[in-house]
Structure formats: C-alpha cells, structure tokens
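Here is the promised in-class demo. Please do not try to memorize the tokens; focus on the logic of going from shape to residues.
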C-alpha cells in the first residue's frame, strides 16, 4: 500500500494506525508503483487534492482509497475519475474500517459511504438519460446498434443473417464489428462476444 497525505501529521497518524496491522504493508514512496492500493488523506476534494489524486494515479497504482474530512456527490465523481473507488470519512477512519476498505479495493470492489450512494446513483441515471442515451450510447461506450450486432453474433448468426435481421447491408455490419473491435482492442468476433458477455451487455 502506498500512503500519501496533504500534511505530515495526517501521514504520520494513518501510518501509525496501519503499520502494526499484518493485513497491510506500507511501501516506501520510491517503490510506490509496486503498490496494489494507494491511500490518500485530504481535508476536502479541492483543486490541490485533485492534483494529489491524479499524481497518485500516475504512479501506476490502479486503485485508490480516499480518506477525507468532507465530500459531496460531485467531488465523489471527481475522485472516482482519478481511480479512487474507496472513500472513508475521517470521522469513520478507524484502523478496522481502513483495513476493510483497503482490502475491498485491492480485490476490485468499491466502498462509498451510504449517504453518498443515493446521490451518486441519481447522477449516474442523469448522465445516462441526458447525455448518453440521446447519442445512442450507454456507460460501456457502445451504441444500441453495436450491442444488437454483438448479441446476434453471440447467437451464431453470420454477417449476412445479421444484415437481413437488422435491415442493414453486410458492409454496415462488418463496419460495426470492425469499429467495436478496434475501439475496444478486441482480437476477433469471439473476443468481442466474450467482452460483451463479461460486461453484461448480452
């Protein structure tokens, strides 16, 4: 675990709470790119804090835990954009809570205080309804037509059959598949279907 704070008192305080715990190991800053999780301690998510979050993300650590005094839904979204999927308020930052959240984030899970979750889900719904849906997109970045083509590929239809079923030319179907595979770095049709299944699209 890589630990960073805006001030030396917070850094020392969190480090002393966690250093004796066998579940985590605090890594020296020089080896930060080897950490599974980065923990950042700030008062508020302002411009200075966001710079610190982005800097922590650039070290190559994919997941982060934010320990913060004050945060609202919009600041939560900003933190998530920087790869911070675990959020703990300082008033709740007991060693046990920190260990639990760090462990969850290391396994690819997230943790958000319950009172922020409702607002976050409302924002997600608003983005889907007002920004993505009018453009024919969803959070995967795939258009409805692209998802439909992948669904039919998964059902075993070839390009000609898909073209007939969707009333497009075969060339259009090939272009759709090529665009999806290029954009998502997928090797072939099977890989595209596997991706769609993993993402719950089909």
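The designed amino acids, position by position:
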């Amino acid at each position: 675990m890589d630990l960073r704070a805006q001030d030396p008192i917070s850094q020392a305080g969190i480090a002393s709470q966690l250093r004796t715990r066998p579940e985590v190991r605090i890594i020296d800053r020089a080896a930060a790119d080897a950490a599974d999780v980065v923990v950042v301690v700030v008062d508020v998510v302002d411009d200075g804090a966001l710079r610190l979050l982005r800097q922590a993300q650039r070290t190559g650590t994919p997941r982060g835990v934010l320990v913060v005094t004050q945060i609202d839904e919009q600041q939560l979204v900003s933190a998530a954009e920087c790869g911070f999927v675990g959020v703990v308020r300082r008033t709740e930052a007991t060693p046990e809570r920190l260990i639990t959240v760090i462990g969850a984030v290391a396994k690819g899970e997230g943790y958000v205080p319950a009172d922020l979750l409702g607002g976050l889900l409302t924002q997600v719904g608003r983005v889907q309804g007002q920004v993505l849906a009018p453009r024919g997109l969803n959070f995967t970045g795939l258009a409805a037509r692209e998802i439909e083509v992948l669904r039919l590929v998964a059902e075993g239809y070839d390009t000609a059959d898909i073209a007939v079923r969707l009333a497009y030319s075969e060339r259009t179907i090939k272009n759709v598949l090529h665009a999806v595979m290029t954009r998502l770095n997928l090797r072939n049709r099977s890989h595209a279907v596997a991706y769609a299944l993993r993402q719950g699209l089909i």
